[in-house]
Amino acid sequence: MRVLLFTGKGGVGKTTSAAATAVLAARRGLRTLVLSTDPAHSLADALGVPLGPEPTPVATDLLGQQVDTQRRFEESWATVRGYLRELLGRGGVDALAAEQLTVLPGADEILALLEVRARVRAGDLDLVVVDCAPTAETLRLLALPAALGWYFEHAFPGHRRLARAARPFVGSEALPADDVFGSVQRLHADLAEVYALLTDPARASVRLVLTPEAVVVAEARRTFTSLSLYGFAVDAVVANRVIPAGGDDPWRAGWVAAQAVQLDEVRQSFAGLPVHLGPYLPEEPVGLDALAAYAEHLYGDADPLGAPPEIRALHVESDGEETVLSMPLPLAERAEVDLARAGDDLVVTVGGQRRVVTLPEWLSPRPVLGAALTDGRLVVHFGQVPVGAA
Ligand SMILES: Nc1ncnc2c1ncn2[C@@H]1O[C@H](COP(=O)(O)OP(=O)(O)OP(=O)(O)O)[C@@H](O)[C@H]1O
Ligand SMILES: [Mg+2]
């Protein structure tokens, strides 16, 4: 069972390549579900069939699903939201502002990913293809479980027992009721599980969709770095809308030459990853047959599922004297990477995006001696526990 997430800049062909990959995989015998969180119904438009909020049969071995993000959101978040609204209101925040403060941007889409976990748990499929929202939103929503986990830990006491102990000091009315505790903890656990699933390269990987244009390639490079920062593995690049060479039209020849330069840049930037080329077709690839034909171009003889990426995720190595923590951070520039300690956590910031790495208990008292970017990895050296600190 594998999960493939398709992301990239707006309009580059995420929905088309996700749908095409799913159609081809199903035709080659894999039990496949393709699902979208895009409320614009573009997946149904690409497949050329209507889709429901539950998995809908589309062809042999192929299901399609348009997740109702609003409904999922209401189901999971309503109790927590009610509590936060009331708490803010009691704190003197007016009703309208409180209402706005309890809306987490992008939360509806992240909750839609709970659907992916449900399908993986059901275990009746070989492949789940996810047509994600455009780059920025997708990143935010994919990284949200980790960020939310941090938020929950700090905003809500971890244990009910702790909360009871605090009651004499803060007054009982300020504490959330049991059902709120329950739903916060459930939601936290659910999202942590989705995050663990989607950052496990053996089970899930991201396919970066781009078009061979300078601006798009530059954004894809940044996306590659930030996906790595948050622990997601990229397994391939889809370069879409590649203009086929031929004819003697100078306009076309100009584009073909310009795209060749960008494709070189793509191969160098994403060195080691397969780059699948999708031709700029004379018409929109809509419907199962058109998508299958497009996917044949894309993958040729290669397996649309691909091999799980061989990446070494965040890990810690110690030889007793010195301890080294390293994580993949491809294409990052030294100047944009920043490290800070926040209590027991290590905060890694790259170009304004931040990941809180919770250090193992035995590592947290050790001082950071230095850090370097080597071969696309961030390597952090820790020293010995200071004498008298243990
Ligand atoms: N290789 C191609 N040749 C011709 N048309 C294409 C090709 N790839 C995509 N298209 C068309 O371009 C349009 C945009 O593609 P698509 O919807 O897949 O992009 P997207 O990245 O999902 O966009 P959004 O960011 O809006 O979700 C669609 O009409 C699609 O049919
Ligand atoms: Mg789309």
Q: How is the largest sheet built, in terms of strand order?
A: 3-4-2-5-1-6-7-8
Percent of sequence in beta strands: 15-25%
* CATH top level assignment of the largest domain: Alpha Beta
How many structurally independent domains?
Answer: 2
CATH architecture of the largest domain: 3-Layer(aba) Sandwich
Number of strands: 15
Principal-axes shape call: globular
Topology-level CATH name of the largest domain: Rossmann fold
Written account of the structure:
- The chain has 390 residues and is α/β, with parallel strands linked by helices.
- The protein folds into 2 domains: 2-69 and 107-299, Rossmann fold; 315-382, Immunoglobulin-like (Sandwich), CATH 2.60.40.
- It is built from 12 helices and 15 strands.
- It has helices spanning 14-27, 42-47, 69-90, 95-101, 107-112, 114-122, 135-155, 160-170, 178-198, 214-229, 250-269, 288-299; strands spanning 2-8, 32-36, 56-59, 62-66, 127-131, 204-210, 234-242, 275-279, 315-318, 323-328, 337-342, 345-350, 353-358, 368-374, 377-382.
- The strands form 3 sheets. The protein has an 8-stranded mixed sheet, sandwiched between helices.
- Strand 6 (204-210), helix 10 and strand 7 (234-242) form a beta-alpha-beta unit.
- The radius of gyration is 23 Å and the shape is globular.
- The two termini are 45 Å apart.
- The relative contact order is 0.13.
- The model is unreliable at 157-163 and 166-170 (pLDDT under 50).
- Bound molecules: adenosine-5'-triphosphate and magnesium ion (MG).
